[in-house]
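ARCHIVE CARD
SHELF: 3
SLOT: left
DATA:
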Amino acid sequence: MFIMKPLFSKGPETESAVTSQIGLWLFCLTLACLPLIYPAVPPYTDVFGHIGRYHVQINSSKIDILASWYSFEWTIIPNLGYDILMQILGPILGVEPATKLLVILSQAICAASILWVSKSQYGSVKFGAVMAIPFLYHYAFNYGFLNYSLSLGLAFGAFVTWRKLHKTPVIRLVTFSLLSSVLFVCHIYGWAIMCILIGSDTLVKNIETKESWMHAFWATTKSCLILTLPFVAYYFFLSGSYDSSKNMFVYKSFIRKLAFIFMAVRDRWAVWDIMAILVVIGIVVFAIRNTKFKIDKTMALALVICCLIYFIMPSTLLGSAFADMRLVPVIFILALLMIDDVEQTYKWLLGFDYPALATAAAAIPENGFDYLWALNLNAQKPGPDWTLIDKNELSTIYKYVGATP
């Protein structure tokens, strides 16, 4: 609690307040990364499949047995964040250590970006931003959707960068012609979230200064046009990279979408997970109805847009399953970021909600006990020596990467 008092103080920043702000940032970054420190390999569903692919990517040209069964060819698709970074770190650290390092850095980037958004919007980190940190252990992350999770942090960071460069439009234009392309290649979801955030912020500001909604909308379109550059380039020149034989668009039941809302931090105990989400929803509703809170218009507009997209979009999009589910943690993060406790009256809500939310987000059950289980059974076992594998040892490869011949 020694962090909370100066953090949420209303006066000018004293030396102790600045120290406590630094302490809060360190606390949040530690919280975001701590569950990933202990296991040798993050034990998420898709991670082991990724590791198998990374081995093919890094070692197929060096090991004959891999080359005889697999080939690896680069092409540009909006889902390459970890693959590009692995090409740099994999040969240096090894695939498994590089994977662990990248997952930890990804969570740290996401946590820092959320805090940075709050600092940019309100001048200090609000309790809603701290409450949003456990949502980094969302259902999609626990599935092992690594590129998406990384792009989420980059999207929030890009949004703040856009705001910081508002006085230098030329520099912003050049920066985001590159940054939007990088984010698009990392994962298309991160690029889309960045566009929603920047578009919402720009539209809100234009509505306040322009004569009409039409003028505001047109000014926003012109300002944000540079963000569409990578999408347009990809659609016209590179969209053939996707396998069109996949189910590109599948819409499943509306009830399934409602259920995913309560699976935002899904772990193994449904009652606990659902109760934690209900508490968060209750706090957001309380903040909206209470005059002592101020609701940030930018975050609120982005939240409404994300909610509309979530209920309209198909469950499978461009061949990717759980496309809609990935928006759920973003919705909750935006809902918490839009709360500005102006009078700092309700900072106690953080202490009320945080233990339940953090454990429901797998900080204790899955990422604690299950990590110990994974560590004891699998994670500390050394992987096969790829230089010694011959054709009689294919079963070792299959067992290691979780595949079947």
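SLOT: right
DATA:
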Amino acid sequence: MPLTIKVTSDFICPWCYIGEKRLAHAVESLPDGFDVNILWLPFELNPDMPSEGMDRKIYRSRKFGSWQRSQAMDAQTVFAGKSDDAVFDYDAIKRTPNTFQAHRVSWFARREDLQHAFVTATFRAYFAEGRDIGKCSPPSPARSASTGTQSWPSSTRTKTPITCGLSNTSLRRAAFGAFLFLTSTAWSSAAPSRPTPSARRSSMQRAASPQTSPDRAQ
């Protein structure tokens, strides 16, 4: 029996991360016969975040009134996630990223049937490893001197940040392909362009139900 589950979330929402873990447990507990397809829809908790992100301590101290309150909120999610194997390492997270590019890669990963794997890996990259998932820039393809063709380097030893902080080879390749596609001239007619912050916030708020609480912004 086919079963489609639509989830509206942001990669820096800790409760979304915990929810992803709980959803995975629920799907695993289903009886045989279900063909589950999880569709991840975008939501930006911080649509006005600069593209380069912000220092997390500064941003959250301003947003929540003090760093102490921010740490207390973090402790709540750490406690809530323990029983669901949701690993948090807030000390490793130095920046609050802009997640728009990560959502774009997620959109493309869905076309390649890699979206769920990409989403779960990105949640872990941010919350458990402290990676800056706002840095969604692939290394440049290498051009062969003999053939003139281009190919992606197989080694991760590159000065360019790994796309969205991911290190898994298959996910990295999917993300590289995504950015080749997204930055091509054809992309403008094949995928949604970046709207203004107010328009983006409005469309994403309509997609999310129930509305997210400001206290969930990370």
